[in-house]
Design a protein that fits this description.
This protein is α+β, with helices and mostly antiparallel strands. Helix content is 36%, strand content 20%. The chain contains 27 helices and 32 strands. The strands form nine sheets. Strands 10, 11, 12, 13, 14, 15 and 16 form a seven-stranded mixed beta sheet that branches. Strands 2-1-25-26 form a four-stranded parallel beta sheet, covered by helices on one side. Helix 19 links the parallel strand 25 and strand 26. The longest helix has 20 residues. The protein is globular and about 100 Å long. It starts with 8 loop residues before the first helix and ends with a strand. It binds one RNA strand through helix 7, strand 11, strand 15, helix 14 and strand 28.
Length: 798
RNA sequence: GGGCGAGUGGCGGAACUGGUAGACGCGCUAGACUCAAAAUCUUGUGGCCUUCGGGCCGUGAGGGUUCAAGUCCCUCCUCGCCCACCA
């Protein structure tokens, strides 16, 4: 007997990890004619704390699927990489005086080491790191492609600014009016910034969401985020009386904004507003007869040209206050404040003179930043009208065609990508002496991030790169627009770096040819491997997952990608919380370290299997240390079966086939928890009736996606390969069936009948009525009987 | 305020397109082994009642549809997430 041979996970795991390290069985190569399967997780940001249990859930889902398809002999690619640019590494570097590069290198090495201890089937030759020059060279290349097509552009406007991190943020990075990194309230600051024109693809991004094999939750969030509204733009002519016209010739620098940036609007903005008219956006142009006033946002560009002299002071004051208000204050205070500008427009439908107001319930970033107020139809307009004594006129709906032009707008704004921080991908742009931007030529890429001494950003609104004086100077060829001749001219580099989301917007394509020196991705490799078949994550529902779709569509349009959606199937899993159900956090001291779980003696297989068993993949779950022990006992029982007396395997043929079917179907459906439960049931059965060799081979194969070390050991000892087993339906049907008999819908007894009798309804019902237990209930007669063959059920109504 | 989910034993959770509620695991119970403990193996385990045959109740609350409802419909309560003055 095998009393001497105990399950020692740490020994077994070390053995197999060494074999996998040396033999590289998970190296992925193009094999024409063999169906491919490309599976990846959202790559981690390697923090100093190392892997946490959330990473383990994420990576193990990917690994279980990888092995599942690998065992079915598909050509599987499962790469791995690190998202390394960003604030945490830089802030840590500032705090400790070490370089972000060194800190990141250490964290990456630690993550790699820890991931290897979990036994993942990773093709380690495809490892990527977004802060390595070999990688960010191509991030810069991507930027230049967008720039060439006019989809990377500069604009001066009010932006979210985090005063702690000293950088601007994208809309998607502001959560409840606070910075997503440090949690500090954000402010508005007027700055010239780089944007990607994601709105160019708004319609396609929206229209193609429905067809994706993604969770509905994410699809809905993306749709809401894009927020398409169909309506019209209507121009209202400003009434030109002498006072307001005169003042428009001498605009006054207004309010607090002037201390941050010059107030003169840029060319792009001054086109859309003039002192002659105001254009509004509305989804209800048919209510124009009820428009009794106009409202513009406090930030409305060119507001100073509109305001009447006697109202100027009040408007300036209101505008300054509105800009000072934090986003939280503006959200919380739903009172309809505002001031009259002293100016009027003509309602083109009624021809009446109606007043222009300024109010912060109108948002500058949406539509035109100006609305026509129809208090009879719109609740917010009515509140405003009541608060400020403005007229409410019932409106007849009308054909608006003669007053405006159809227009579609989106809630989604263009993606702000410049960051005033050091530790990011340098934007490959330089400015001539007149301040005009020029792209760095592709053959000069990468624009290397220079090593500097002091990473700290300052009040200047420029990143620490501004201090790298030598690096700033660059000579690039620029074509003179007049002569058409190209000349080398001295330029100054852009000091902003790219939002980290830019780096992660194309990494799934880099994985297909991670060492390619000529392309961002190899065209042949991309057409074989991409798009990604299964992508697994727990975050970034609208940011990353929208950006990557945007880049995919853009690069498809440029002929670089043969598909328009980057991810076929998305698995969005829940978080793992502390045993008390609260979020794990260092400050609460309730963090479970996965490496501790392994080193405590449970091993990686237990950790992995437990996290798959913990609950439905899409739901949050609470860590339960005692259940970890339960999974360990299960694996231990599997191992001990190896040493048991073997019986004739044909005895278990039904349960074996049933288990193969259940586990296979459950993994396809990502029901990992019930797949593990089915394996536990199978093992319980084997303990009762004994196990044959074939029973154990099937067990090891089915369990391998979850516990690869233990099962590799089992299969080696059993002398079997790991090819995924198939079930045969013929073993699932038995000669007899159990028929449930109900009286008035309540279970009263069960009959065992011949399978062939299931076809004979009369016979079954007669058998049921003859049963002694049933006769107790039928003495007063029977109203009706129902037989459901599919459910193997009889219901007798008395 | 709007949108989307979810409420099942002491706990985490099962239950296919309406058809045997509580799979599997944890915890607890009893036993075997042991001087003893751990480990391991074997029992039992929704609640209440029981003459030990079984009976009644039971999936957040209340109504409805149905031979039959955790599952469908209506009203309400609680929790979670997302969006939040988007004209």
């Amino acid at each position: 007997m095998g009393g001497m041979d105990r399950y020692e996970p740490l020994k077994i795991e070390e053995k197999w990890q060494k074999i996998w390290e040396e033999e590289k069985p998970y190296k992925a190569e193009t094999v024409e004619g063999v169906p491919k399967m490309y599976i990846a997780e959202m790559f981690p940001y390697p923090s100093g704390a190392g892997l946490h249990v959330g990473h383990v859930r994420n990576f193990t889902i990917v690994d279980a699927l990888t092995r599942f398809y690998e065992q079915q002999r598909l050509n599987v690619m499962r790469p791995f990489g690190y998202d390394t640019f960003g604030l945490p590494a830089e802030n840590y570097a500032i705090k400790t005086g070490r370089s972000p590069k060194d800190v990141t290198a250490e964290n990456v090495a630690n993550f790699r080491k820890q991931a290897k201890r979990l036994g993942y089937a990773i093709d380690w030759d495809r490892e990527i790191n977004t802060s390595s020059p070999e990688y960010y060279k191509w991030t810069q290349w991507c930027f230049l492609q967008l720039y060439k097509k006019g989809l990377a552009y500069q604009k001066e406007s009010y932006q979210w600014w985090c005063p702690v991190d000293q950088t601007v943020l994208a809309n998607e990075q502001v959560e409840n009016g606070c910075c997503w990194r440090c949690g500090h309230e954000v402010e508005k600051k007027k700055m010239k910034q780089w944007f990607f024109k994601i709105t160019e693809y708004a319609d396609e991004l929206l229209d193609e969401v429905d067809a994706l094999d993604w969770p509905d939750k994410i699809k809905t969030m993306q749709k809401n985020w894009i927020g398409r509204s169909v309506g019209a733009e209507i121009e209202f002519a400003i009434v030109q009386d002498s006072s307001s016209f005169a003042s428009s010739l001498a605009p006054v620098v207004m309010g607090l904004a002037s201390s941050i940036a010059p107030v003169v609007a840029n060319a792009h903005e001054s086109e859309s507003c003039s002192n002659r008219s105001i254009t509004v956006f509305t989804t209800r142009p048919d209510t124009i007869f009820g428009a009794t006033f106009l409202v513009v946002a406090p930030e409305y560009p060119g507001l100073e040209y509109i305001v009447a002299d006697d109202a100027r002071e009040a408007v300036e004051k209101y505008r300054a206050e509105a800009l000072l208000k934090s986003e939280i204050e503006r959200q919380e205070n739903k009172e309809k404040t505002g001031v009259f500008t002293g100016a009027y427009v003509i309602n083109p439908a009624t021809k009446e003179k109606i007043p222009i107001w300024v109010a912060d319930y109108v948002l500058s970033g949406y539509g035109t930043g100006a609305i026509m107020a129809v208090p009879a139809m719109d609740e917010r307009d009515r509140e405003f009208a009541e608060a400020h004594d403005l007229p409410v006129v019932e409106t007849e709906l009308c054909e608006f065609g003669q007053f405006g032009t159809p227009k579609t707008t989106y809630r989604m704004r263009d993606w702000l990508i410049s960051r005033q921080r050091y530790w990011g991908c340098p934007i490959p742009i330089a400015y001539d002496k007149d301040g005009n931007p020029h792209p760095i030529p592709e053959d000069q890429l990468p624009v290397m991030l220079p090593e500097i001494e002091d990473y700290k950003p300052d009040e200047s609104g420029r990143s620490a790169l501004a201090k790298a004086k030598d690096w700033l100077k660059v000579k690039i060829p620029v074509k003179d627009p007049k002569t058409g001749k190209t000349q080398m001219i001295e330029c100054t580099r852009e000091t902003d770096t790219l939002d980290g989301y830019a780096c992660s917007s194309w990494y799934l394509w880099r994985y297909v040819s991670p060492h390619d020196k000529k392309h961002a991705w190899d065209p042949e490799a991309i057409s074989y491997w991409a798009p990604t078949d299964i992508y697994v994550g727990a975050d970034h529902a609208v940011a990353h997952l929208l950006y990557i779709r945007f880049w995919c569509k853009f690069f498809a349009d440029q002929g670089y990608l043969p598909f328009r959606e980057p991810i076929k199937k998305l698995i969005y899993h829940g978080y793992i919380n502390a045993p008390d159900g609260k979020k794990m956090s260092k400050s609460k001291g309730n963090v479970i370290d996965p490496l501790d779980v392994i080193n405590d003696g449970y091993g990686a297989d237990t950790l992995r299997t437990y996290e798959m068993f913990i609950g439905p993949v899409e739901l949050d779950a609470a860590w339960d240390p005692r259940s970890v022990g339960g999974v360990y006992r299960f694996l231990n029982r599997c191992y001990n079966l190896l040493n048991s007396e073997k019986i004739d395997g044909s005895k278990n043929i039904t349960i074996r086939n049933k288990t193969i079917k259940k586990v296979t179907e459950d993994i396809y459906k990502c029901n990992f928890n019930t797949a593990v439960a089915a394996l536990m049931e199978y093992v319980n059965e084997l303990y009762k009736v004994g196990a044959g060799e074939e029973d154990l081979i099937v067990l090891a194969k089915l369990l391998k996606p979850f516990a690869p070390h233990l099962t590799s050991e089992m299969l080696e000892r059993l002398g079997a390969d790991d090819e995924w087993p198939k079930w045969d339906e013929k073993y699932l049907v038995s000669d007899t069936a159990e028929v449930v008999v109900q009286v008035n819908g309540k279970l009263r007894t069960k009959l065992t009948v011949e399978m062939t009798d299931l076809e004979d309804e009369d016979k079954i019902i007669k058998m049921a009525l003859k049963d002694k237990k049933i006769q107790k209930y039928t003495s007063d007669g029977i109203k009706k009987t129902i037989f459901v063959k599919k459910a193997k059920l009889v219901n007798i109504v008395v």
